[in-house]
Design goal:
By secondary structure, the chain is α+β, with helices and mostly antiparallel strands. It contains six helices and 17 strands.
Length: 293
């Protein structure tokens, strides 16, 4: 199986255009197996790959599937940013309002050309929140290798699920965030045991200063993610819930420990059905198309 036409997109770059999460984007092939799809990300030098399906679903969504080297994902935030950026570049339009179908859900997307790249936003939908059980919390926090001085003094871990659940773990400051040295084997085992996608370790935003975060997901083959957009939306939902506000907007910087500075934007709103979020980021579409194998 070969994919001669793979575009690599730096998704969720910083405002100055640096960094971002390299994401492979290609048209899907109905003859491909899932093993073929899993191989694309690794061959393209990306942690994730987005596969653009043909046509539309009955509710108007354009199919997109996401794979890492080890698994298919029910959703991928920075992958959605990359996929919609590529869709816009295939048109002569200045902006594109569309709908994407991924993981059994269809949602609105918006992409617009900016001087620094392509800005993409998507509706993440409802985010369910719960407090972790004591054994669940202990297993994850212990596997992260944090010291007794690292936890945040007023915030607490939370499980957030826009679909796939993940644990949000607040730490005291950016120094504590940099000190996190997870035992990846233990973390992967704990995530599988409790049905978690991974663990989003973060410093909350304060005033005009962006937050900062690191996402560890070894259970799905991503030891540390450059940018995790869906978890940023989850964080916005958590912060909205704990403050009691009706709306909130945040920016979270990621990727610095991997030498790929990234930035993700998110907003959350409280409605009749619960907390809904929108997530966004700036994408740089590389000009070259790459034959990966």
């Amino acid at each position: 199986m070969s994919w001669p036409d793979v575009t690599v997109v730096d998704a969720c770059v910083r405002r100055d255009g640096r960094g971002g999460s390299p994401t492979a984007v290609t048209d899907d092939d109905p003859a491909a197996t899932d093993a073929d799809r899993r191989a694309v990300a690794a061959a393209a030098g990306a942690s994730h790959a987005a596969f653009l399906g043909p046509g539309r679903t009955p509710d108007g969504g354009r199919p997109v599937r996401f794979f890492t080297a080890t698994a298919e994902l029910s959703g991928c935030g920075h992958g959605t940013v990359a996929a919609q950026a590529v869709r816009l570049t295939r048109t002569a339009l200045a902006e594109l309002n569309d709908r994407q179908h991924t993981g059994g859900r269809t949602f609105d997307t918006f992409a617009i050309r900016r001087a620094a790249g392509i800005e993409v936003w998507f509706d993440q939908g409802l985010v369910a929140l719960r407090h972790p059980a004591p054994d669940e919390r202990a297993a994850i926090v212990t596997a992260l290798g944090l010291t007794t001085d690292d936890p945040h003094p007023t915030d607490a871990p939370r499980i957030a699920a826009p679909g796939a659940p993940r644990m949000l773990v607040p730490v005291h400051d950016r120094s504590a965030l940099l000190r996190a040295r997870p035992h990846l084997g233990r973390l992967a085992e704990a995530c599988r045991r409790y049905g978690l996608l991974g663990c989003f370790v973060y410093v909350p935003p304060v005033g005009d200063r962006p937050g900062a975060a690191r996402m560890f997901a070894p259970a799905i083959g991503v030891d540390e993610d450059v940018a995790n957009a869906n978890s940023t939306g989850c964080l916005a939902a958590h912060l909205l819930d704990t403050t009691g506000a009706r709306t909130i907007s945040i920016e979270v910087e990621q990727g610095d420990t991997l030498g790929r500075p990234a930035s993700v934007l998110a907003s959350a709103r409280r409605g009749p059905a619960g907390i809904t979020t929108r997530v966004g980021g700036l994408a740089m579409v590389r000009d070259s198309h790459k034959r990966v194998f």
